[in-house]
Specification:
Blueprint: E1 6-10, H1 31-44, E2 48-51, H2 68-78, E3 83-88, H3 95-108, E4 113-117, H4 123-127, H5 136-154, E5 159-162, E6 167-171, E7 184-188, H6 192-201, E8 204-207, H7 212-223, E9 235-241, E10 243-245, H8 248-263, H9 266-275, H10 281-286, E11 303-305, H11 306-319, E12 321-327, H12 331-364
Parallel strand pairs: 1-2, 1-12, 2-3, 3-4, 4-7, 7-8, 8-9, 9-12, 10-11
Antiparallel strand pairs: 5-6
Helix pairs in contact: 1-2, 1-12, 2-3, 3-5, 5-6, 7-11, 11-12
Length: 365
C-alpha cells in the first residue's frame, strides 16, 4: 500500500543547508527565524517539519545552534496543523525524562508530535560533555534498549524493565497520550544495526537523499523484514535538497552556483569529517557524488525544471516514499516557489493517473 504523499521542511537549526557563505542566505539559526519559517511552511500547505538535535553546532562550534526540544514545544503551541518531528540522540536524555517531554509536546500539539531517533555521529558533542562516544554498534545497542523503554512509556504502560543499560521499576507517565496510542517514531540511519532497529521499533524510516533506484533497493530490504503481529507496515521518508526552476538550464545554473559557494566551506567540512564516526553510512553515501545540502542533499536528483522535479517525486512515491523532507536555499523564497510551482504539478499528476486507472478499469469491466 502506498500512503498519501506528504511534504515537509527541515528547520534551520544550524543555518544554511547548502553553503554558509551565500549572500542570499545570511547565517541565522535563531528561534525567531525558525518560528517564522515553520509558520510560513504551515500556511503554504507543508505537512511536516523536522527539528534536528544538536547541543553544539556540528559544522563550526562558535556558530549559533537552536535547541531542538524547547523549540519544538513552542512550535507545538503556535501551530495548528503541521506535524512536528524532533530528533533525539539517546545518550543525551534518560528515556524516562525524554518520554515525559515527548508526551508533553504531543499533548500541547494535540497529537501532531513525533520523535526522530538518531544514534549520533558528531564526536565532540558527546565527548566534551563527558558522556563519551561509544563505538558504532554499541551506540545502536544502547539506542535499541532506550527506544524500547521510551516506546512503552509513551503508550501509557506502567513499566518495569531491567536491561543492560536501564533499570526502571513500576514507572508510569500521566497524562498519557490524549489523542492516539503514542507519538509516531521515525528512525534514521542506513547501517545494518539501523535497519534492524527501524524494522523492530520504527513507524517511518528516514532515508538520506540518493538516486531513486538506490532508495528503492533500501526500501525493499527493510520492508521485507518481520515487524511483529500487531505492528503496521513500515512507512518511508526521504531527505532531499530541491532546486526547481522554470527550465532545467536555470536549475543547473542555480545548482552550480551553490556548488561553487559550498567549496568555500572546505575548512568547515574538514573539521566535520574529522569529528565524524567513519562507520556512519550517511557520510559514506554523501561522498559518492558532488552535491549540496545535508543528509544526501541534491543526490536525490530533485534538481531540474518544475516538470522534471514533479515527475521524479512521483517516481520516488511509486517506489514507496511517503514523506519528502526538503531543504532549499535561500530557504524561504525557494520553499514558497516549490509550494506554488511543484506541489500543484505533483497533485495534478496524481489526479491524472488516478483518473486514468479508473477509466481503464471501466473499459475493462
Amino acid at each position: 500500500m502506498t500512503h498519501p504523499l506528504r511534504f515537509g521542511i527541515w528547520a534551520l537549526v544550524h543555518g544554511p543547508r547548502a553553503a554558509h557563505q551565500d549572500p542570499e542566505e545570511p547565517y541565522d539559526a535563531s528561534w525567531e527565524r525558525n518560528r517564522d519559517l515553520v509558520l510560513a511552511a504551515e500556511a503554504l500547505g507543508y505537512d511536516s517539519t523536522l527539528v534536528a538535535q544538536h547541543t553544539i553546532n556540528p559544522h563550526q562550534e562558535d556558530l549559533d545552534q537552536l535547541e531542538a526540544w524547547s523549540a519544538a514545544a513552542a512550535l507545538a503551541a503556535l501551530t495548528s496543523r503541521i506535524e512536528i518531528i524532533t530528533a533525539i540522540k539517546p545518550y543525551l536524555y534518560h528515556p524516562v525524562v525524554l518520554a515525559k517531554m515527548a508526551l508533553g509536546i504531543e499533548n500541547i500539539s494535540r497529537g501532531r508530535f513525533a520523535i526522530n531517533l538518531v544514534n549520533a555521529w558528531n564526536r565532540p558533542e558527546l565527548e566534551r560533555a563527558g558522556i563519551g562516544f561509544a563505538e558504532h554498534d554499541e551506540r545502536y545497542a544502547y539506542g535499541r534498549e532506550w527506544i524500547t523503554v521510551v516506546s512503552r512509556l509513551l503508550q501509557g504502560e506502567r513499566l518495569t524493565h531491567k536491561g543492560r543499560y536501564f533499570d526502571v521499576q513500576g514507572y508510569a507517565l500521566r497524562p498519557k497520550d490524549l489523542y492516539r496510542a503514542r507519538p509516531r517514531i521515525y528512525v534514521g540511519g542506513e547501517s545494518e544495526p539501523a535497519r534492524a532497529l527501524v524494522a523492530d521499533h520504527g513507524d517511518v524510516w528516514f532515508i538520506n537523499g540518493q538516486p531513486r533506484d538506490d532508495v528503492a533497493s533500501l526500501i525493499r530490504d527493510v520492508a521485507a523484514r518481520p515487524r511483529g503481529a500487531i505492528a503496521p507496515p513500515l512507512r518511508f521518508g526521504l531527505s532531499a535538497f530541491v532546486i526547481a526552476r522554470p527550465t532545467a538550464e536555470e536549475a543547473d545554473a542555480a545548482h552550480q552556483r551553490l556548488l561553487r559557494l559550498a567549496e568555500k566551506d572546505a575548512p568547515m567540512k574538514a573539521i566535520q569529517k574529522q569529528n565524524t564516526d567513519p562507520k556512519v553510512v550517511m557520510m559514506q553515501t554523501m561522498q559518492k557524488s558532488a552535491r549540496v545540502g545535508s543528509n544526501g542533499g541534491t543526490a536525490a536528483g530533485l534538481v531540474g525544471s518544475y516538470e522534471e522535479v514533479a515527475d521524479r517525486i512521483i517516481d520516488f512515491h511509486a517506489a514507496g516514499i511517503e514523506l519528502f523532507m526538503l531543504q532549499f536555499q535561500p530557504f524561504e523564497a525557494e520553499m514558497k516557489r516549490f509550494a506554488e510551482e511543484v506541489i500543484p504539478r505533483v497533485r495534478q499528476r496524481q489526479h491524472d493517473r488516478g483518473a486514468t486507472k479508473i477509466d481503464s478499469g471501466r473499459r475493462v469491466g
